[in-house]
Amino acid sequence: MKLLLVEDDQETADYICQGLEEHGHRVERAADGHAGLMLAGDGTAYDVLIIDRMLPKLDGVTLLKTLRASGVKTPAIFLTAMGSIDDRVRGLESGGDDYLVKPFAFAELYARVVSLARRPPLAAAETVLQAGDLTLDLISRTATRGGQRIELQPTEFRLLEYLMRRPGKIVTRTMLLEGVWEFHFDPKTNIVETQVSRLRSKIDRGFTKERIRTVRGAGYMLDAE
Amino acid sequence: MLSRVLRHANFKLALLYAAVFCVSVLVLVTVIFLSVREDIERQARTHIEEELAQLMVDYREDGLRELQHDIRERIENGGVNRLRYALIGPDGTRRFDAIDAPSRRGWYRRFSLSGDDLLIDSIPLDGGYSLLVAADLGIIHDMEDAIRGQLFLLVLFIVLAAGLGGVLVSQRFLGRIDRISRATEQVGAGNLSARLPIAGTGDDFDQLSTTINRMLERIELLVGEIRHVATGIAHDLRTPLGHLRQKLESIRTHTNDEAQRNRVDDALDQLDGALATFSALLRIAEVESGSRRAGFAPCNLSAQLAQLAELYQPVAEEQGIALTTHLKTNVWIEGDAALITQCFANLIENALRHSGGTLLQLRLSTEGKRVLAELRDNGCGIASTDPVVLVQPFFRADASRSTPGNGLGLSLVRAIANLHDAPLHFVDASPGLAVQLIFARIPAPVTGM
Asked: Are residues A60 and A111 part of one domain?
């Protein structure tokens, strides 16, 4: 992947770049909003934009608004040190696809960036999701594996849908909380772990191949093979 | 509007003024009437005295015959309002006008059955005769009747005019009060830049509005400074903590020593715990500032609670707690969906972690416009159901000190409840505790198309 990082804090920028490069991606850097605008203006050069919310010269929200207004559709994730609800809402309204509050674990950022990259366009609305022998019909709201019907609770169905829309990609606990249950805070109980293990026991029961894998220290991944 | 006008102080004041004015008018009219009546009587008296004096001069000079001639002349030439004359003979015979009165000497007043009111003076003449001259005071009664009739119309007019004036003045006042309360409600809703309208007349309202506006300016400035400081703290604290976290993670990634990795993991957990407390405090501050009210939208509380219950049921089951629901469907309220989720999630987690019971029930019911959301456990309850103590930041019930947590959960619940104008109650359910939130129901939005 080729990524653009617009971040004025040198230390954080180094840390993110190092991590991404260790995973084999190319990262270009801009230290202020103007430089970011110049680099991203083309619209085709990058797979994902990582933009700090508070930047010198041109703040992150204005930067992305300008890009979106000029037709740049590159997925973008905001990094912010503020983390208020207002802030998140404004960030997403300006055209941001995701939003991550500093400080964060690198694994969290990485999972989100990978999840954003080459996301299938929303216009092509799929009605059936497929992952190997696992099928999810979004119209009839049914799940089957190897032809066998699996009974799912509504919340389990949504969880599986979220995972199946990102096959082979790591999905973190926070991504699930935000994306499936609209939890924009950190719950004190292990609801995600419990829900995932319930879902896993339902879809993997009687099969040798495990569809939902736990990626240690990072999150979960749906095996698409 | 009309019932508000009738209750309005200005309207009542206008009616009171009208009553005082009516009494004043009555007193004034009575005084005028009495003095006019006295004047009429005095004039009549003078008139009679002069007439008698003149008649007596003629009588003394030319005798009874001339007197009779004079009287006859006066009766023939006088108009309708002329004086009346009578000459009473020694045998009691009366001549000229029929004055139905005894012939006694001096002044007296006579009211006849026919309604005449006569003021009479009588003088004895020689030979047993006596002369009576009288004036008709009927005009006084006519005046009295006229005033009485007009006075009733006058009072009616004053009361109507005062009532109408009161309504108009009250409406003007209420209009301004409405504009002022709309502006203050906006401020209460978190729009601190709203200002009270100034009519430009320089009246009491304008003076009050100017003072309040100065106060609002100060509040806006202070809140702005607090926000600025909070953002500054958030940024200036998160950045170095972020660097710290990055360094720790870097150490963790690049070490092969398992023991060291575990120690770094512990340090990361502790750091994340501190950051979580920090985020919770900032979230409470944000909710308390009321700025989220701008993002309110209709929320399906039934669906949200059902989803939360479904989400927490497995966790509860693992802890041996049965989480059941009794939710009325399609109940909508106006609010911030994300915060409402967080509010009830906090309550459920609190109950799961601290109640010590085996049952947990989430209920949603309505009563007219009131929506009652209740979470009830059968645990040990709490020593105090005083909400003031419970929702204090960092408050931990004695029994819960050993369990992890920062004591900010209920503070946030209260802040979210306040933001939604939802009263929060802690009720002793013996056994256990019931936490109740009361929202205002709104009609379900029209869906589809």
From this structure: yes
Domain of A200: which CATH number?
A: 1.10.10.10
**CATH label of the domain that carries residue A7:** 3.40.50.2300
Q: Are B15 and B162 in contact (CB under 8 A)?
A: yes
**B396 close to A (CB below 8 A):** no
Number of domains in chain A: 2
SS3 state at A48: strand
Return d(Cα A131, Cα A129) in angstroms, integer: 7
**Joined tokens for residue B222:** 């202070």
Q: Largest Cα–Cα distance of chain B, in whole Å?
A: 160
Structure tokens that stand for B262 in this block:
């575990």
Q: CB–CB of A9 and B352 under 8 A?
A: no
| Domain ranges, residue A112 | 2-123
Token pair listed for B403: 């369990």
Asked whether B377 and B340 are in contact (CB, 8 A), the reply is no
Residue B323, beta-bridge partner list: B360
CB B29 within 8 Å of CB B116: no
DSSP structural state of residue B105: S
Is B239's CB within 8 Å of A12's CB? yes
Q: What is the pLDDT of residues A22-81, one digit of tens each?
A: 888 999 898 888 888 888 887 677 889 999 988 888 888 999 998 888 888 888 999 988
Between helix B138-188 and helix B204-254 the angle, nearest 10°, is 10
From A77, A95, A123, the end of a domain falls on: A123
Q: ipTM for the complex?
A: 0.86
A139 touches chain B (CB under 8 A): no
Q: Which residue of A has its CA nearest to B404?
A: A188
- What is the CB neighbour count within 10 angstroms for residue B139? 14
The minimal CB distance from A188 to the residues B244, B311, B353 is found for B353
Q: Are residues A115 and A132 in the same domain?
A: no
Q: Do B234 and A83 touch (CB under 8 A)?
A: yes
